[in-house]
Amino acid sequence: MQSPAPMPDNAQWRKSTRSDQGENCVELWRSSDQAAVRDSKNAAGSALNLPTSALDSLLEIVTK
């Protein structure tokens, strides 16, 4: 398995519109071929990096 390419320094992270004010949510970044998910409370921490196809599958499952 290949390691994902590093995210750009200017990556635009998005937070769910369903987030509460307590910061109990995740943030998402995606490009045409890769994506990342991170905890909004620890933005400087690690992120889950995955191909966009895997993210699309995950989102399909959790939004059902």
TrEMBL record:
This is DUF397 domain-containing protein. Residues 11-61 form the DUF397 domain. Residues 1-24 are annotated as: Disordered. Pfam families: DUF397. InterPro entries: DUF397 (IPR007278). It comes from the Bacteria.
